[in-house]
Design a protein that fits this description.
Elements (H helix, E strand, L loop, with lengths): L18 H15 L4 H17 L8 H25 L2 H7 L9 H19 L3 H12 L4 H8 L3 H21 L1
Helix pairs in contact: 1-2, 1-3, 1-6, 2-3, 3-7, 5-8, 6-7, 6-8, 7-8
Length: 176
């Protein structure tokens, strides 16, 4: 993960319980999995932690902290994506991320690029709730319980969304 500037410390001089150090990298990965470019993801993570630090009261302790933090990150990311969608399509942003490795076999590079493109398109074609569930569990590394809490659904519903998402991706990639 690139260096995301930590938010400023609270009035006591420290961020609460090292939340930033513990959750910034998974939050960054989660936001990237939602389709944001690296620089935009850095901004969303930084803004999320600023919101967390400004929040009234103390963050939840222990097992509930991750769900609370990822809920804030999710809302910040969704708000950013709504703003961004007005300016450009997310598909353009994803295509700009493709990079070629000039040191490998050109045919292999083209094949890998096509595979990445096909996978990106398959993920983009998923309904938003399936994409979010997949990103929370598969990329951010949250447990099913934590991801279900972030999404505001039961674990069974999250499991169903993940199953449907993976099935749709396999079917789509099998067609291509």
């Amino acid at each position: 993960m690139p260096q995301v500037m930590p938010p400023r410390e609270d009035a006591s001089g420290t961020a609460p319980d090292g939340l930033y150090e513990r959750y910034a990298t998974p939050a960054f990965r989660y936001v990237r999995a939602l389709g944001l470019r690296e620089a935009d993801a850095e901004d969303v993570v930084a803004e999320s932690f600023l919101r967390i630090l400004r929040a009234q009261g103390n963050p939840p302790d222990g097992e509930f902290a991750a769900g609370w933090i990822f809920t804030v990150v999710r809302h910040t990311a969704v708000n950013f994506m709504r703003w961004r969608t007005r300016q450009e399509k997310l598909r353009d942003a994803a295509s700009q991320e493709g990079r070629r490795n000039t040191e490998c076999d050109p045919a292999q590079a083209v094949q890998e690029e096509e595979m990445v493109r096909a996978l990106s398109e398959a993920i983009e074609a998923l309904p938003a709730e399936q994409r979010h569930a997949l990103a929370l569990v598969g990329v951010a590394g949250l447990s099913y319980r934590e991801a279900a809490e972030v999404e505001g659904i039961t674990e069974a519903a999250l499991t169903s969304r993940l199953f449907q998402a993976r099935k749709a991706i396999r079917e789509r990639l099998g067609e291509d």
